[in-house]
Specification:
Helices cover 41% and strands 16% of the residues. It is of the alpha/beta class. It folds into two domains: 8-314, 2-Layer Sandwich (Transcription Regulator spoIIAA), CATH 3.30.750; 381-440 and 442-474, no CATH class. Strand 4, helix 4 (129-143) and strand 5 (145-155) form a beta-alpha-beta unit. It starts with a helix and ends with a helix. The relative contact order is 0.14. The structure holds iron/sulfur cluster. The site of iron/sulfur cluster has 11 residues, from loops.
Length: 475
């Protein structure tokens, strides 16, 4: 293994639930600094246009998984399908959350109909169908929704039955992200998951019967005791369920989790870096051979089924985030909400009485460039020269292109023609790289954190004054 390989930590999203995880690209102290900075300074080249994507956070789970450090309220192992009532203290907490959540939506400015909605968590499938209906109706009444809007919901296999998913379908959910994670009972138990492989099959049957045709499955690679053989089995069983989409997350051992107390990354029973890389390559081989497009580092889709909502994050476009701990990205600013229920309720109360407030003013220029690069390189489409040059200025993009070119010899970067749908800018014709640049699949994706770390270091220290003006005028 080369030095670069030894340094490499894989792309690590250990579960797809929630927008913030889209920025958890990296591990290690050096990369954490990047994550902190991106989280602190998010902004958008899409500028002041109101979002057309809404994320709604449902911060409740039955139990805490051993690898999870998300701020969620644990509501316990009551019979999962019993009706929630306010007399049940834990599940009453979910009911109590809905009113402030809907009040927040009602009091949020915006004048464009939504193209996508994503109910994430936590475990949104702890909600009853009428509660989901309440949220969707509130969104529709406040913003409107275009015909054919993608309305996704995360579902955990042991929290639903046939009637419940029928209710979700009737409420308007048209895309489901099912938290499978693994097909082996011992691996699921080793993660603290509450479901079994039989629950996965039952949930899939129920979803099909209810009429869902757009179903994504989440899998995690790099679990303790997972082997290439069990990973192969999980991939094959996932393919056999005929989903339209798969999200493959590589486990990261976060501080403050049970896993961090029990395990050392790279040491048994966790896979070595080399084995983890092999698991990534195996997924890429099996899923592309089965007809899935590897359209993003961690995501695969049947043609036409790429997740539209997550595409908004990857293209660094504005979005609403509603609920405890969620963040909106609008008017070139990032708006965060409190991460505890009491503080969130108080925040909503203030919102109702005082109106919308900016929480976190940010510099809209400097990190826009870096973030657009770092998010865009996650996509198989990569970055397009003309579009980047129009926003950030020719000089910066030429500099970036030259920098990325240094990875071509290692086979991590490749150049691709401009897509037909993209605009042509004759001003840039003289540039030898008037085209797309993207990470190769799978090797470039596998080592993307090396490339992105280098990009960050190379560009974050440079003054970018001309770029600031370009960004301001572009938005
Ligand atoms: S289901 Fe598990 S991993 Fe997902 S948010 Fe809840 S505790 Fe965390």
């Amino acid at each position: 293994m080369s030095d670069a390989q030894q340094d490499c930590h894989l792309q690590v999203h250990y579960i797809s639930q929630g927008q913030n995880r889209l920025l958890d690209y990296h591990t290690g102290a050096r990369m954490q600094k990047i994550g902190d900075r991106l989280e602190a300074d998010r902004c958008s080249p899409a500028g002041g246009a109101a979002p057309t994507a809404a994320y709604v956070h449902i911060p409740f789970c039955r139990r805490r998984c051993y690898y999870c450090d998300f701020p969620v309220s644990i509501v316990g192992d009551r019979p999962p399908l019993a009706r929630q009532t306010s007399s049940n203290s834990s599940f009453g907490a979910i009911a109590q959350y809905l009113d402030p959540l809907c009040q927040e939506i009602v009091h949020t400015p915006g004048d464009r109909p939504l193209h996508s909605v994503f109910l994430g968590g936590g475990t949104p499938s702890l909600l009853e169908p009428d509660q989901v209906q309440q949220i969707l109706t509130t969104l529709e009444q406040r913003f409107g929704m275009v015909d054919g809007a993608e309305i996704s919901m995360e579902i955990d296999p042991d929290t639903v039955d046939a009637d419940k998913v029928k209710g979700y379908h009737a409420a308007g959910i048209n895309r489901v992200s099912l938290g499978v994670q693994a097909f082996q009972l011992d691996l699921l138990q080793a993660c603290g998951r509450t479901h079994t492989p039989a629950d996965i099959d039952r949930a899939m049957d129920s979803l099909r019967q209810a009429g869902f045709t757009n179903i994504s499955l989440d899998l995690i690679s790099g679990l303790p005791h997972q082997t290439p053989e069990t990973w192969e089995e999980s991939l094959q069983r996932a393919i056999a369920l005929a989903p339209t989409h798969l999200s493959i997350y590589d486990l990261i051992v976060e501080p403050q989790t049970a896993f961090s107390r029990w395990y050392q990354p790279g040491e048994l029973p966790l896979p070595s870096d080399q084995v983890a890389a092999d698991l990534y390559r195996l997924a890429q081989q099996r899923l592309t051979a089965a007809g899935f497009e590897h359209y993003e580092i961690s995501n695969y889709a049947r043609p036409g089924y790429a997740c539209q909502h997550n595409g908004v994050y990857w293209r660094n476009q504005p979005y609403y985030g509603f609920g405890m701990g969620a963040a909106s990205y609008m008017q070139q600013q990032r708006y965060t909400r409190p991460r505890t229920r009491a503080a969130y309720f108080e925040w909503v109360n203030k919102l109702q009485h005082q109106g919308w407030q900016l929480d976190v003013p940010v510099d809209p220029a400097q990190d826009t460039f870096l973030e657009t690069v770092m998010l865009g390189l996650r996509l198989a489409d990569g970055l397009e020269f003309n579009a980047m040059a129009d926003i950030f200025g020719l000089a910066w993009v030429q500099h970036l292109w030259q920098f990325l070119n240094t990875y071509t010899d290692r086979g991590w970067i490749e150049w691709a023609p401009v897509l037909e749908s993209e605009h042509h800018n004759p001003q840039h014709d003289e540039h030898p790289r008037s085209s797309r640049v993207r990470l190769t699949d799978p090797e470039g994706f596998l080592f993307s954190n090396v490339v992105l770390s280098d990009v960050f270091q190379a560009f974050s220290d440079e003054p970018r004054e001309p770029c600031r003006e370009t960004v301001k005028s572009a938005v």
